[in-house]
Design brief:
The complex is a heterodimer of chains A (303) and B (256).
Chain A: E1 6-8, E2 11-13, E3 17-19, H1 28-31, E4 41-43, E5 60-63, E6 66-69, H2 78-90, E7 95-100, H3 105-116, E8 122-126, H4 137-140, H5 143-156, E9 161-164, H6 172-181, E10 186-189, E11 193-195, E12 198-199, E13 204-205, E14 212-215, H7 220-233, E15 238-240, H8 247-255, E16 258-263, H9 266-269, H10 273-288
Parallel strand pairs in A: 3-16, 4-7, 7-8, 8-9, 9-10, 10-15, 15-16
Antiparallel strand pairs in A: 1-2, 5-6, 6-14, 11-14, 12-13
Chain B: E1 4-17, E2 20-26, H1 28-33, E3 39-42, E4 51-59, E5 64-70, H2 74-80, E6 87-94, E7 107-112, H3 120-126, E8 130-136, H4 145-150, E9 154-159, E10 166-167, H5 171-180, E11 185-189, H6 192-205, E12 208-212, E13 228-233, E14 236-241, E15 248-250
Parallel strand pairs in B: 7-8, 7-11, 8-9, 9-10, 11-12
Antiparallel strand pairs in B: 1-2, 1-6, 2-5, 3-4, 3-6, 4-5, 12-15, 13-14
Helix pairs in contact in B: 5-6
The chains are: A alpha/beta (303), B alpha/beta (256).
């Protein structure tokens, strides 16, 4: 039994596996299947200052080795999260990363301020949602905007601040440096890649939003490359995600530089994926005689 | 809602029409809690997304479920290649099912095409109190009529081209029944235009109506919010979710 515990910017995780924001709601639906305390943490559904209705259906499309989604940040608003979902999660003995988003930097800051007064463990600021018209990815695709929104949120909270980055950029390392300079404690990546499918019988895009975010095994190599580039560019820790569906994938992402790993679309295929991935990582480490998962972080030996 | 995920044995497979298959699956813990109108979420080897399939039969004594599904694409084609003795990976039973009220004296079940299978457990529950109207494209697409008759329900068959039963849509015989009155509830599943017409007749005649919807779905349990459906909640528009709030909705809640 290897030591699976990790520490990300001062926060201790019993293991590095975290269901990614958006796939796991606020955890309740999965507790029917397994105890949430087996997880290292949970990144909660992207939550905004006020309730958001989200996009019209269809919001989901299948793709080779993956899927597109355009949910559009449907959520009940931060006050509902703080009064209803957070107290529930705080009883579960896992790290809570409250994922937040907003249409303007001030809105993000106001949402973070509300969380600052709670017992949430970390804030994950989503500057990369591809499915909303204002804010979302618009913040995440320029260094200036990414820096500005990070600075505003930073000044609104003392909680460890993780900024979730968009892969839909020319240089993700530059965006990561901008948010590091603006006071982020960690970065998480990658959010989904912008994609599109068309029903060739009707000529209509499958998603009502026309375009949506691609996730699943198809994006995994992109995630490995970007985690590697970002972890070489910044000093703050990197939380990796993007198409992870096995313990071997999680190990690979950690070798690329991730200190912890989020699991997304794999949960739709196998709802037990996070638990299975923890077991598979442990097994890999034991076979290799590696005592702690921390010993593999960033150990890739580039040619 | 209580659900589990596991691998279950297919104990019987049959082809019930062209590209439509019936599986009987041994899954005692699922059958024990399953209700009419719920669905199972089936993993397909090479795909990221599971496939939601409605439950067509629940045998709590034998511990089995029956599903009847049509090959719609590569995913359902892959499921159809499974055989008796093979394992099927299901997350089930999921969703909010139909309301079965023993006090109802006369109910009408209306299935359109592959929307017909979820009507069968209701026919079993209501027996002779039910009239099952089923509509299909043509005679070669007709399914489950013997099964409905075995429940004691009265059956009315329609085909779009008149090659079997009444020539026309299910709404015609239903409108006539509605005109006669005395219907306590209508339950329906099928194409959206059909559901909309039935709901509109029910509204006009003030008949309680439950409809089963489908939508592209990911998690199946209400976490990802992928399968949105426009509804009214507390007088405001609300995107409900077909997997958890549905698939069965009170027709009055749905915004068409």
């Amino acid at each position: 039994m290897a030591d699976l515990s990790v520490n990300v910017c001062g926060v201790d995780f019993k293991n590095p596996i975290i269901p990614a924001s958006g796939v796991f709601g606020y955890g309740r639906e999965y507790e029917e299947l397994f105890p949430l305390n087996k997880l290292g943490g949970i990144a909660t559904k992207g939550t905004t200052l006020h309730l958001r209705k989200g996009n019209p259906a269809p919001r989901i499309a299948e793709t080779p080795s993956g899927m597109l989604n355009s949910v559009g940040l449907q959520n009940p608003g931060i006050d509902h999260f703080i009064s209803t979902d957070l107290p529930y999660l705080l009883t579960k003995n896992l790290v809570i990363l409250a994922n937040i988003a907003g249409s303007t930097p001030d809105e993000c800051a106001e949402t973070a301020k509300k969380l600052d007064e709670t017992d949430v463990h970390m804030i994950e600021l989503n500057i990369s949602c591809p499915n909303v018209k204002q804010g979302g990815a618009a913040f995440g695709t320029s260094c200036e905007m990414a820096g500005e929104v990070t600075r505003k949120v930073r000044s609104a909270t003392k909680k460890p601040l993780v900024v979730k980055l968009s892969p839909n950029v020319t240089s993700i390392a530059d965006i990561a440096k901008a948010v590091e300079d603006a006071g982020a404690d960690a970065v998480s990546l990658i959010n989904t890649l912008l994609g599109m499918r068309i029903d060739i019988n009707t000529g209509r895009p499958i998603l009502h939003n026309n375009v949506g975010g691609l996730s699943g095994p198809a994006v995994f190599p992109v995630a490995v490359r970007m985690v590697w580039q970002v972890s070489n560019a910044v000093k703050i820790p990197v939380i990796g995600m993007g198409g992870v569906s096995s313990g071997r994938d999680a190990v690979e992402l950690m070798m690329a530089g991730a200190s912890a790993v989020q699991v997304g679309a794999a949960i739709f295929t196998d709802p037990y994926a996070p638990i299975r991935i923890i077991d598979e990582m442990n097994e890999f480490l034991d076979i290799k005689g590696i005592k702690s998962v921390r010993d593999i972080i960033g150990t890739v030996k580039p040619w | 809602m209580k659900y589990t995920q596991g691998q279950y044995i297919i104990i019987k497979k049959s082809a019930v029409a062209k590209e439509i298959y019936s599986f009987e699956i041994s899954c005692p813990e699922v059958a024990e809690v399953a209700e009419a109108g719920q669905f199972v979420h089936i993993r397909v080897g090479s795909f990221t997304l599971r496939r939601p399939i409605s439950i067509c039969g629940i045998d709590k004594k034998k511990g089995t479920l029956r599903i009847v599904f049509e090959i719609r694409g590569e995913g359902t084609a892959e499921i159809a290649r499974l055989n008796e003795g093979d394992l099927i990976d299901m997350l089930a039973p999921l969703g909010h099912g139909f309301t079965v009220n023993p006090d109802f004296r006369k109910v009408v079940l209306i299935g359109g095409g592959i929307g017909t299978p979820p009507m069968l457990p209701l026919a079993q529950a209501y027996g002779g109190k039910a009239t099952a109207i089923s509509g299909f494209r043509n005679s070669s697409a007709v399914i489950l009529q013997d099964d409905f008759r075995k429940t004691g329900a009265e059956t009315i068959l329609c085909t779009d081209d008149g090659s079997a039963g009444i020539h026309g849509f299910v709404t015609q015989p239903f409108a006539e029944l509605a005109e006669q009155g005395g219907i306590d509830a209508v339950y329906t599943c099928g194409p959206m235009p059909m559901l909309k017409n039935i709901a509109s007749i029910c509204r006009e005649k003030n008949i309680y109506c439950e409809i089963s919807l489908e939508e592209r779905m990911a998690c199946g349990i209400g976490a990802c919010l992928g399968c949105a459906c426009r509804t009214v909640r507390n007088d405001e528009e609300y995107f409900a979710h077909v997997c958890k709030d549905g698939p069965v909705f009170n027709a009055e809640e749905v915004l068409w």
